[in-house]
């Protein structure tokens, strides 16, 4: 414990005389200073015992009161006057005692056989001993936190160990301010959920540099970011902290970051499975199959949308981690060389999440669709991503987006030239338009054969034969997204909105 005035006075080797002290308070002495200035207050840091032999000690009541007031306002917790036959004062002047009483500042008399350096040594020896004990406690705390993490206690064990050792409550939240784990509420009232979200909203844009100290409901609260290179969580410390708590806090934050990274690494198999689920939903052959896969993946609701986010110069793994924390319940995947993609529920505030956690990333947002038509939402997201890279902000696809874009952002003659160039192999090989109609029906039917055949009123084998012919004519496989998007844009530019009554082409 720090040295108090009572402990200093009780030291038998010092023989200190108490001239005035209101013993209802026992101030902590954090330093020792000697000064013969008339106004020493500006040279004080606070918490000291100020020692003087009173060479210039004021002799009038007003001046003496002003001197003591300056010492008190400077932060000194004790005033000590050196006494002796060879010194200016053999006893403490009554005016000085009266001034100390008026300011409620403890006043001591130091006999000449007790040099000031003895008191200074006693003060700093106590400080060194206290710091040693604090460091020992810090080492023990670090060992306990490390053991808790290594023994599988997880975030819950780390938080409980911290609070038991320090008495400081802690709440760990995700970057959105949603609570992940918290210490026992009996250690202090935890902030309300809304307050946690508000604090996170302020700090999240600053990433791992976001930290603050504040007061909530009369309690001091310190918020620290958790993460190595990317923000993973916030740790909110609740309660009064000691002088070495900042060092202890660093240990806590480091171990929390390691535990969160461990959780992320150990969840890799689950992420890989969810990426496979993502693809299975896109290629499902029926609405019922796609809906079953969506429910099995834990997504709820009737409609969902796809998003595509460009990692840019950053790490796709970090972006996946950010979106995994942000988009709760979503399916997320990343394929080599492509964007980070996600299937999210209708109630997700995607634009806000992207603004906060991927502010420099281009992003395309598809329309809400049923599980069986999510491939179309993904195509929309990929097309919107292209526009987003140009505009420098997330772009949400909407119905009629392509037509508006081709009309307003592209020269109509250029758009028609593009359409003719893409579709020329099909129109030249089949002037009846059956190949073009089949491609549009197939794309509109989420690239599924049976619905396209129903719409064309032909057999599904006919649709398959025509699509094989299309691949031969354009020289590109239809299972590539770029090919499908190019054909889709060409059809839109041509203004093919209704299927012609095409007769089956001879196969």
From TrEMBL:
Residues 435-493 form the PucR C-terminal helix-turn-helix domain. Residues 22-127 form the Purine catabolism PurC-like domain. It comes from the Bacteria. PANTHER family: CARBOHYDRATE DIACID REGULATOR, PUCR FAMILY TRANSCRIPTIONAL REGULATOR. This is PucR family transcriptional regulator. It comes from Microbacterium sp. A8/3-1.
């Amino acid at each position: 414990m720090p040295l108090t005035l009572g402990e200093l006075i009780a030291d038998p080797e010092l023989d200190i005389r108490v001239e005035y002290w209101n013993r209802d308070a026992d101030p902590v002495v954090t330093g020792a200073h000697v000064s013969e200035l008339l106004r020493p207050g500006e040279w004080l840091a606070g918490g000291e015992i100020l020692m003087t032999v009173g060479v210039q000690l004021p002799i009038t009541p007003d001046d003496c009161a002003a001197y003591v007031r300056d010492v008190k306002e400077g932060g000194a917790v004790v005033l000590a006057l050196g006494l002796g036959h060879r010194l200016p004062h053999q006893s403490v002047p009554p005016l000085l005692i009266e001034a100390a009483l008026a300011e409620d500042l403890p006043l001591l008399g130091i006999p000449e056989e007790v040099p000031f350096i003895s008191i200074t040594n006693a003060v700093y020896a106590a400080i060194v001993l206290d710091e040693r004990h604090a460091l020992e406690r810090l080492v023990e705390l670090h060992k306990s936190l490390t053991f808790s993490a290594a023994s599988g206690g997880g975030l819950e064990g780390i938080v409980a160990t911290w609070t038991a050792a320090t008495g400081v409550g802690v709440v760990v939240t995700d970057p959105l301010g949603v609570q992940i784990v918290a210490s026992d509420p009996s250690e202090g009232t935890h902030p309300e959920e809304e307050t946690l979200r508000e604090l996170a909203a302020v700090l999240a844009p600053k990433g791992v540099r976001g930290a603050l100290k504040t007061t909530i409901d009369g309690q001091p609260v310190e918020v620290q970011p958790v993460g190595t290179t990317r923000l993973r969580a916030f740790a909110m410390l609740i309660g009064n902290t000691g002088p070495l708590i900042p060092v202890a806090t660093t240990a806590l934050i480091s171990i929390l970051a390691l535990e969160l990274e461990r959780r992320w690494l150990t969840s890799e198999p689950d992420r890989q499975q969810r990426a496979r689920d993502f693809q299975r939903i896109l290629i499902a052959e029926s609405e019922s199959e796609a809906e079953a896969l969506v429910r099995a993946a834990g997504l709820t609701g009737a409609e969902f949308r796809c998003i595509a986010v460009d990692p840019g110069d950053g790490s796709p793994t970090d972006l996946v981690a950010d979106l995994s924390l942000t988009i709760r319940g979503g399916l997320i995947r990343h394929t080599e060389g492509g964007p980070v993609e996600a299937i999210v529920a209708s109630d997700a505030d995607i634009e806000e999440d992207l603004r906060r956690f991927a502010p420099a990333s281009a992003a395309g947002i598809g329309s809400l669709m049923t599980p069986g038509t999510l491939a179309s939402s993904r195509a929309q997201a990929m097309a919107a991503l292209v526009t987003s890279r140009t505009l420098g902000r997330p772009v949400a696809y909407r119905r009629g987006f392509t037509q508006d874009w081709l009309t307003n952002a592209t020269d109509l003659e250029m758009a028609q030239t593009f359409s003719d160039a893409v579709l020329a192999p099909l129109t030249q090989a089949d002037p009846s338009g059956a190949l073009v109609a089949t491609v549009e029906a197939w794309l509109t039917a989420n690239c599924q054969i049976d619905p396209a055949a129903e719409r064309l009123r032909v057999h599904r084998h006919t649709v398959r034969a025509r699509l094989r012919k299309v691949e031969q004519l354009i020289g590109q496989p239809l299972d590539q997204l770029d090919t499908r998007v190019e054909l889709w844009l060409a059809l839109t530019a041509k203004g093919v909105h209704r299927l012609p009554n095409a007769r089956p082409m001879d196969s």
